[in-house]
Amino acid sequence: MNITINQVLQSYIDPLTAxxxxxxxxxxxxxxxxxxxxxxxxxxIDGHNRYAICRQHGIEFKTxxxxxxxxxxxxxxxxxxxxxxxxxxxxxxRGVLALxxxxxxxxxSPAPVSAxxxxxxxxxxxxxxxxxxxxxxxxRLSSNQISQIEKIQKAxxxxxxxxxxxxxxxxxxxxxxxxxxxEEQVAAVAGGKKLLRQAAKEIREQRAATRTPREPKVHVPQxxxxxxxxxxxxxxxxTPSEAERLRGEVASLKQKVAQLQAENTELxxxxxxxxDAS
Length: 278
Hints:
Elements: H1 7-10, H2 18-31, E1 37-40, E2 43-46, H3 48-57, E3 63-65, H4 72-84, H5 91-108, H6 132-139, H7 143-155, H8 158-165, H9 171-177, H10 182-190, H11 192-210, H12 231-277
Parallel strand pairs: 1-3
Antiparallel strand pairs: 1-2
């Protein structure tokens, strides 16, 4: 039987860990391949790991055709939904799959009508999965996690992506480390889980240190109608002392900014030292 492996479809499947693969191998050797592999024509769409093990050990298997698809996009969407429903799929992989589904659905959506013919207001149709919230719902994740996964996809080195796929680093930490230059990401991954966590911590502290403090709001009391006084009349006597207080606060904030900038420089040096030490 001629079975074709489509590399794009296969990439939708998170690789099994060594222990998971060994457990599946023991099960197939002991009980045989009880579940049929699913094909679309000659393309394998479900059962990639079972197929590999069965071929390696000469284990017989059955196949079943799914004839409901009319295009490769249909197959992709079916595989994505199939994997999104599985508990064993990691949070990161569910986010990646949901974002892929968004791309496929967007490409299949009809072209937008002209502005003249387009409905207005609440009657205007919205493409499915067009918002981050809809993607997050499909992946059973938060909108913030989807945003972090998008950052990882755009900026992370292949080594960092593999680290988050394998669970060595969390989605949150990986999105933070992805802000580093690629060579520093690779060095952090090479240093292992401890260095990755430390690098993410240092970057967060650096961002917090460089965040511009908000200026305090000045509350100007207003006279009640019963007093019969104009607001400026009573405030005029308070103006000099209020101005002095504000000048003092501004001077204090400037001093704090200078201190934070010095700490920022020190944090950058510490991150560089950690990467060099790895």
